[in-house]
Design brief:
- By secondary structure, this protein is mainly beta.
- Helix content is about 5%, strand content about 40%.
- The chain has a 4-stranded antiparallel β-sheet. A 4-stranded antiparallel β-sheet has the order 2-7-4-5, with no helix packed on it.
- A hairpin with a 3-residue loop joins strand 4 and strand 5.
Length: about 100
């Protein structure tokens, strides 16, 4: 992810484990179910979307054949695209809505 403003990655059950990135991470669950740890554990289902801020520890645990799509966005790209966003913090968790 060096030098790229954004990058996509497919996540599966093998990608479980506590991780953090220096980029903004947007995750969309394409198929299946799982759990995510952000500030606590949340259940995930198909079509859920959530944002993980840079340097925020997270653990995504996908069940069996579940697949999620992760988009990583460099903060420099965000601030260059929207200069009014100097120190962005995003709070987006679709699994709070039925």
């Amino acid at each position: 992810m060096i030098g790229k403003p954004f990058e996509f990655n497919l996540l599966t059950e093998k990608d479980a484990g506590m991780k953090w990135f220096d980029k903004l991470e947007i995750v969309f669950v394409l198929e299946g179910t799982g759990r995510v740890f952000l500030d606590s554990y949340y259940n995930l289902k198909e079509a859920d979307i959530f944002v993980v801020n840079g340097f925020q520890p997270r653990d995504i645990i996908l069940v069996k054949d579940a697949i999620a799509l992760a988009l990583y966005i460099d903060y420099k790209f965000v601030s260059n695209s929207s200069p009014e966003v100097f120190n962005p913090y995003f709070d987006c968790k679709s699994f709070f809505v039925d």
